[in-house]
Amino acid sequence: MVFGVDGKGRLILNAHYLGLLELVVLIFGSQVVLGRTRYFDFKIHYANVSRLCHTKSAVLVNGRFPGPATYVREGDRVVVKVTNLVSYNVTIHWHGVRQLLSAWADGPAYITQCPIQKNQSYIHRFRIVEQRGTLFWHAHISWLRATVHGAFIIFPKRTNPAYPFSMPQKELPPLILGEWWNANVEDVSAQALATGGAYNVSDALTINGQPGDLYNCSSDGTFVYHVSRGRVYMLRIINAALNFQMYFAIANHTLTVVEADAEYTQELLTDMIILAPGQTTNVLFTTNKSSGDYYIAASVYSTPNAEIVPFPQTPTTAILRYEAAGSGTGQVVLPSFPLANDSSLHVKLSKALKGKQFSEGFYHFDVPQTVDYDLLHTIGYALQRCAAPNETCMGQRNIRFRASMNNISFVSPDAYSILEAHYNHVNGVYTTNFPDAPYFKYDYTAVNPINKAALSGTRVRVIPFNSTVQVVYQDTATLFIQSHPMHLHGQNFYIVGTGNGTYNPKTDPATFNLVNPPSRNTVSVYPGGWAAVRFRAINPGAWLVHCHFDIHMSWGMDMVFITLNGKKDSEILPPPPKDLPKC
C-alpha cells in the first residue's frame, strides 16, 4: 500500500513513495524549497442542483458546484484521494500542473490512466515545482467537467516576495466561468456523438455556478463580491466553460493583467479580456468609482456566427458591491461587449501580452532559440460517412461531424492507457506515425477543400528527452474558420508568434518574439490564423494535446506527444503507482 491511515485517521504515505518525492527534490535541487504535504479528499457523487427554474441531479465533488478550491504553495507535495460514487467512469485532471516525473497523476482518461470506476478510488500524488498562480482541476472524461471542476491556487514559496508587481491590498475569491445545461450533460454529449450532428447548446453561462440576474429564477443566487472604496484588489479568473471563449469585464473598472495560466506577465491595462476554455488570468483593479453596484459580466466570443454555431445570447453576471452601497441599491451598471464574432480584441490582446522579465528570482526565460523539431499541425473540422447504411447521421449533408489535427481524427483507446502501453511496451494500443505536417499542402484558410474526410487512428509523436520543439497550430477553412484553444499537458509553451491567414515558414519566423513571449498552457489560435509555440521536452510521459472545446475534443481534435526518458536517473519516469485504475 502506498497510501494508508494513521492512528488519528489521517491519510499517510508510506516510506517508498516519500522516497520518490525526495528524489524530485534532488532532481531540481535549489530550485525547490521542501514544502508541506497537503492532503485532499474528493468524493464524486450525485446531488440535486436548481438553476433556471429547474432542478436536476448533477455530478458534483464534495457536494459543491463549482467544486472545492484547493490551495497549495510552490514546493508542496499534493495528495488527493478521488473516490467515484457515481455510475459514470471518472478521472480528474490538474489543468496546467506540469507533473514533473508524475505523469501518472495527470488524469486524462485513457492517456495517462484508465478511468476510476464506480465505488473505486485513486490517489493522485504530485509535487508543485517552479509554479505559482491560478490553475484549476476538472474531470477529464466525456463532458463531466461541466459540473466537476474547481480552482487550484498555488501561492509563491515563502522565500520570495509575494508577487513581482504592486502588492494588492486584498484578494477576492476565485471567479470561475462556466456553462449550465438543464438536461443531463452526459446525455447531451452522448446524443451528439451517437447522431454525428451538432450538440444541444447550454442553457446559460455561469459565474461561480450561477447564471446571474439576467436569467430567469437566478437573481437570488447571483454571486456578490463585497469591496471597500479606495483599495487595490486581485481577482483570479478561470474559464471552465466547455465550448465557448468569453469576453470578461467589470463595468466602469480598468483591469491590469498580471498573470496568465499561472505565469507572470508584464502589466497590461485593459477594460476587457478574453479567456478561452482552459485559460486563467489574474487581474488587479482599483475600487475608485462611486458607491454602488457594478456588474461583473462575461459574454460569448465565438467567431462563427450564431446560425453556424449557436451560443447562449445572454451574459452571465455577478455583482461588485461597494460596502457603502448597502444591499442591491440603485441601478446596476452592465459592461458593453463587442459583437460575439468580433476578433479584433483577441488579436489586440494576443499581440500585447508579454512575459515578465527576470526580477528577484521570480521568472527566467528559457525560450528555445533554435528547434530540433519544427512541426505544423492543422486544426479544423472534418466529415465522416456513416459506418452502416442504416446508421443515422445528422451532420451536414447527412454525414457525421468530426474534427482533426493534420487530417487525423483521434480515436481514444479503451482497454489500456497510452502511458501504460508506452511504459510496459504493449503493442497495438497506438502507432507512432502522427505526421509532422499535413499530407496535402494548400492555402489552408482560403480554401474549403472538396474532400473533407479525415483519417482515424490513435497516433502519437515520439519526442526524445531534452529536444526543443516548435509547433505551428494552423486553423483551416474546412467547413468554416474558427478560433481553437489548443492545450498542452505536462509542460507550458512559449507563444512566440501569431498571425492571420496561412503560416509562411519563410517569412513569418522573422516576426517571432524570442525575447519575452508569454508562457502558457493554452493558446487561442486566431480564426483563420495560426499560432507558433515552442517548448523543451524535459518531462517524460504521454502528454495529450487537444482543443479545449469539449465538442471538438470529442470529435477527434487531439494528439499525444510521448516524451522519452533521459539518460540520467533523474530523467526517468518512475513506475506507476500500485493503485493505478484498471480498464
What is the straight-line distance between the termini? 20 Å
Count of structural domains: 3
Provide the CATH superfamily of the largest domain. Answer: Cupredoxins -  blue copper proteins
How many distinct beta strands?
A: 35
Q: Beta fraction of the residues? A: 35-45%
Q: Report the major sheet.
A: 7 strands, mixed
Q: What is the CATH T-level topology of the largest domain? A: Immunoglobulin-like
* Tally of separate helices: 5
User: Which percent range fits the helix content?
Assistant: under 10%
Structural class: mainly beta
Q: Which runs of at least 5 residues are low in confidence (pLDDT < 50)?
A: 1-33
Keywords: Apoplast, Copper, Lignin degradation, Membrane, Metal-binding, Oxidoreductase, Repeat, Secreted, Transmembrane, Transmembrane helix
Cofactor: Cu cation
Family: Belongs to the multicopper oxidase family.
Protein name: Laccase
Provide an overview of this structure.
With 583 residues, the chain is mainly β. The chain folds into 3 domains: 3-155, Sandwich (Immunoglobulin-like); 170-352, Immunoglobulin-like, CATH 2.60.40; 373-571, Immunoglobulin-like (Sandwich), CATH 2.60.40.420. 8% of the residues lie in helices and 37% in strands. The protein contains 5 helices and 35 strands. The chain has helices spanning 15-28, 185-195, 344-352, 418-424, 550-555; strands at residues 3-5, 11-13, 37-51, 54-61, 70-73, 77-84, 92-95, 121-127, 133-139, 149-155, 170-171, 175-180, 204-207, 224-227, 232-239, 245-250, 255-260, 263-270, 273-275, 280-286, 293-301, 316-322, 373-384, 400-405, 408-410, 455-457, 460-463, 467-475, 484-488, 493-500, 519-520, 522-525, 529-537, 541-547, 558-563. The strands form 8 sheets. Strands 11, 12, 13, 15, 17, 18 and 20 form a 7-stranded mixed β-sheet that branches. Strands 24-23-28-33-30-31 form a 6-stranded mixed β-sheet. It is globular. It starts with a strand and ends in a 20-residue tail after the last strand. The chain crosses the membrane at residues 15-34. Keywords: Apoplast, Copper, Lignin degradation, Membrane, Metal-binding, Oxidoreductase, Repeat, Secreted, Transmembrane, Transmembrane helix.
